[in-house]
């Protein structure tokens, strides 16, 4: 009888342990979301990257970067970044102090252009004749004609700007200091990023930090076309409760940080503080949503995204500047296949990974805000079977110091 009792006890304890594990798994899934909890599974493949610790090359002229809050790649595979010169710490701009207290260093111009080898080949930006430069730079994109679009997220920034790649002013949508709410058809409020869809020549503005919408304009005339909020409804500017992962999904956007249009005509919106991507048709019709690390608070888990460069754009690369990683997501299912990165200052690590862009070869570029203040390149190494849900720092498999 004692043997039977001990066996029964062991069976009971095993069953109890199994129930506890299931409960914990269910709790994690509820807390973090089904997409975020995806594990590596046999048969799945995903793009693989390795950080290039030797790219870009050192900046000229003792230049240094502040918070680096925009990146885009043009048709020549030239990389453009936007940063905030005023955010450079006083101890890091001795030559720019009045009077100078040393020779190193000076904040770089607002916009820098790099060639594929990582050399700075042009620079421009800042206040000029005929336009209102943003008080606080935010977001840079390049349209199919090679023009550069810039936003800003200061309280007075209610406009976006369009320039040639060499910095010649072309167009301004909105006027500074004219915030009039999420249903205004002329002005913006703290717009985060712009994407120009070439088929209709329409500029999709993630509008953004102040307003709660995606708004679309003609990219040449600035004529208003349409706008929408979360779930395709008209946005509401009533005060929002503090985000809670346990609450029902919010019916309003909370920091619209990007709005990107795929080749097959879907709009992917980064709803940053709500830890989600929402997908729409180009007319604003809601399609679906997915959550990522739903327990992430404060700045949220969905900061920016980029499409993979295969013809079908099968993957989304999603930046998360709180958890310091990049998720590789199946664009069709919105399932996380794997992720890479970690917090830190070494190559392949992140401090506030903010924006993403890809070049024609599939390489991935990242910029970092706060004191991360840098640009990195991750070299595309093809697709491989997924063996880990978290890849960690994508350090090169083979490297030679000084190569």
Briefly, what is this?
It is built from 1 helix and 26 strands. With 403 residues, it is mostly beta strands.
Low-confidence stretches: 1-7, 11-40
What's the β-strand tally?
26
The appropriate CATH architecture of the largest domain is 6 Propeller
Task: Indicate the structural class.
Answer: mainly beta
In the sheet with the most strands, the strands line up as 1-26-25-24
CATH superfamily of the largest domain: TolB, C-terminal domain
Using the alpha-carbon principal axes, give the shape. Answer: globular
- The H/E string reads HEEEEEEEEEEEEEEEEEEEEEEEEEE
What is the C-alpha radius of gyration, as a whole number of Å?
Answer: 23 Å
What is the count of distinct domains? Answer: 2
First-last Cα distance: 72 Å
List its traits.
single chain, 403 residues, mainly beta, Neuraminidase, 2 domains, 4-stranded antiparallel sheet, 1 helix, 8% helix, disordered N terminus
